[in-house]
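Lab notebook page, bench 4
Experiment: in silico fold of construct C2
Operator: M.H.
Input chain length: 482 residues
Purpose: comparison with the prior construct
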Amino acid sequence: MSSAQAQTKETPKILKLIGFLGALDPLMEAYNESLTHDRKFYAQDIDGSIAWARANKNVGILTEKEFREIEQGFALVKDEWDADTFQIKPGVDEDIHTANERRLGEVIGQAIAGKLHTGRSRNDQIATDLRLWVRNKLHDIQSHLGSLLQAIVSRADAEIEFIMPGYTHLQRAQPVRWSHWLLSYGFFFAADFKRLKNVIDDLNISPLGTGALSGNVFGVDREAIGRELGFDGLCWNSMNAVSDRDFLLETMSWGSRFMGHVSRIAMDLCIYSSQESGFVKLSDAYSTGSSLMPQKKNPDALELLRGKSGQMHGLLSGFTTTLNSLPSCYNKDMQEGTSSIIATISLLSDSIQILTGVLTTLTVHPANMRRALEPSMLATELADYLVKKGVPFRETHHISGKVVALAEAQGKGMDALGVPELRGVDARFGDDVTACFDQEAAVEKRTAKGGTARGSVREQIEVLTQLLQTGKMPAWNVNVVN
């Protein structure tokens, strides 16, 4: 059916769902409308309406011809949305449901379009639209997150030889591989990747056919409707189906935890990109200059990622509060979830892609990392050296601390202390103790699974590679090809 043909249909009476005689206050009308936000669900609303029309056809509410008219009419309506030519009628189109049905009536005539909503409520309609839209968007986010993990894995593999200070409490602690640091966040995001699948699985159940709250009287096949829309199961209680927005909270909760991880890696990279560290340099694509000081290169992408995490926590907190203490079934308060989930999806999608861009384009300065390695970071090596001679660790820890104090008192690094000076602290230090002051050797000693030795890091790379390839991580053992 062409657009020109559609315009020849008799224009129906304006579809208004408020059945009272009194006029609605104009401010209330604007306050009440949701089309500003839920217009994003136009495709899902049309898909759900076609599935609903098919179900009504199967129980005799619609004829085969009427169903085909509805299906073809909605194809034209969807084309208009896709082309951004759909004409919204302010004051008439309260939400995406009324807008689509109003336009369908203009296209095929109200005599047929008016049958579409038989047995259906906007309560189960919006619940369906939300689940379909969020599911689709989370699949996109899942793909973006996979790209982020791949960027981390690729970089960790290519730059495995770079050694840098590892920090605790923002203090230089022990030497680690740059790849090991990257992978530490890789495993945070890997956990997010697995949890996201659970979020998608949990939300993918169909509420359509539950009506306003009590169910459907025409015997529609809810299972067939759900399968047509790609759901994995049903919402089993009609009152629960129209009032459940836990899947929005779970999405926001996932996003809040994920953005917490994003804020942490962003903070680390802010520090590592500072002139004081100089470990990395951000690409110009993700940095800006100062309006006053031309020498400055600001890590705006990282700072915004850090700041957006607060916004994500706020979205979760806000909608959690909205749902708190609501009475059963649908309440208009739930409409606030629409803008919240749209903001959530946009924030998450953009943030993942920005972080991926930062990580794939930054420049690493391994020489600066090496220069930041201090002899005092090998104090644990001295303790471990004595442990291998049978000295209890608590005692070796104390002895190692005395060596650190001696070096500080003399204003030099521990590696500059001679063997006689070390034996002056403890006679059990042998001539071979100087081997402890080798940063590379210290890194390579951490061979247990999860450590920073080269072989252990390669194993971690393989674990994340398997996650990306199969969706699962090995629990215990993994075969690594060096």
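Observations: The two ends are 62 Å apart (CA to CA). Confidence is low (pLDDT under 50) at residues 1-8, 10-15.
Next step: discuss at group meeting.
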